[in-house]
Design a protein that fits this description.
homodimer, alpha/beta, Arc Repressor Mutant, subunit A, Rossmann fold, 2 domains, 7-stranded mixed β-sheet, 8 helices, 10 strands, about 20% strand, DNA-binding
Chain lengths: ~210, ~210
DNA sequence: CCTTGTGAACGCATTCACAGCA
DNA sequence: TGCTGTGAATGCGTTCACAAGG
């Protein structure tokens, strides 16, 4: 049905969605590819080309209906439902993630958390009861978890990720600063501020 | 002097560095581009081509000396010195960032923090005394800050970033989930887990 | 045999430019 | 006129393939 969409195109759709949400809150009804491009610092052609992979959403002479395009993109990205997530690793970083208020409004709910540290198991943090990591596989399936967040020490990350994959998880948000391997078919996104810093310094150092 | 290096090449160097650090800790002395590529899931040709932008670091028949290549890359990226960072926004997220233990070992030190909330100003969090955001410009210059970390609410992020740039900051790590504009010459890296999640769901939804 | 370093070939993403339509 | 949607053209990053060296 849909041709092969370049990954880089998919990765830009959430940005469009953000801009559209803002436009909607400003009461803007129609936006041209040029208008969107100005806000996002992109060329209008790129936006039109990206959207054209998925259909025709615009009106000549007018541009795109903000509300309509927004709900189209939400549907395309699968954001018209709630996604259930599990956190693995409830240390310092894990607790900050559990506490983070930015996921829920976008439809991402953390409904399970796992730890190996016995003192933490059974406790409730930010409304989520911490389970034994030994129960990972059964609990993930019981709770129909879609996405896993990995916040364990680097040394444990690969093992944890292998377990997650064996449990059927196909999307992982990894906070461990390590290069992990996943088989084809499993999506992995890394959140790695140190990597981001280390590539900025290259441009800073020329003084 | 050095030709224009593609940004995507620069962004891969920190990954090479990571792999090399691990290899060194394993006691490996020489590694071929093939060996590195296997670990990083990349083609050997890409690694050789990337490195060739900066010089000739390998030995035919042997590969690369792990320690040597590591220190070359550190130098290229400007990681042979400590970088001073300031945090703006000491809310929930900001405190987690101040608390994060991953920056210091890589030479990134948070030595200043700023807030607008009066109750927080003057307090010390994770060893850093919180200053009034009104003093941003002078304090950044006094302390010779190189990099700013932005962890304020989205609604304030653009204003804060404009101030930072006016204060002479040329590299920003932005945690606010918003599309901000920076002039050419200023590096901006965004840490945005929601964006990462939203592009994974595209691939999950086909069931 | 093993490797690197690199010009050339390739393929893919971005941009151009224009037909088509309001 | 203003703007979309899209094939064609461009530009750029990746991969190939091989000379050169150990």
């Amino acid at each position: 049905m849909q041709r092969q969409i370049p990954e880089v195109v998919v990765s830009r759709l959430p940005m469009y969605l953000r801009a559209l949400a803002l436009l909607k809150s400003e009461g803007v009804e129609f936006i041209s590819s040029k208008g969107l491009g100005d806000r996002l610092r992109m060329t209008p052609a790129q936006i039109r080309k990206d959207l054209s992979f998925f259909g025709k959403f615009g009106r000549q002479g007018r541009g795109y209906n903000v509300g309509r395009l927004r709900s189209e993109l939400q549907q395309i990205l699968g954001l018209d439902k709630n996604w259930l997530m599990a956190l693995v690793g409830v240390g310092r970083l894990g607790r900050a993630i559990l506490d983070y208020k930015g996921f829920a409004p976008e439809g991402f709910k953390i409904v399970a958390a796992f730890e190996s540290e016995p003192d933490l198991i059974g406790k409730t943090v930010s409304g989520v009861q911490i389970e034994d990591i030994a129960d990972l596989e059964t609990s993930l399936k019981d709770k129909k978890i879609d996405i896993a967040i990995v916040a364990v020490p680097s040394s444990d990350a690969q093992v944890v990720i292998d377990k997650l994959i064996k449990s059927g998880i196909r999307a992982i948000l990894n906070y461990a600063p390590i290069c992990v391997r996943v088989p084809r078919g499993v999506r992995l996104q890394a959140i790695d501020p140190v990597l981001a810093l280390q590539s900025m310094t290259f441009y800073l150092k020329r003084d």
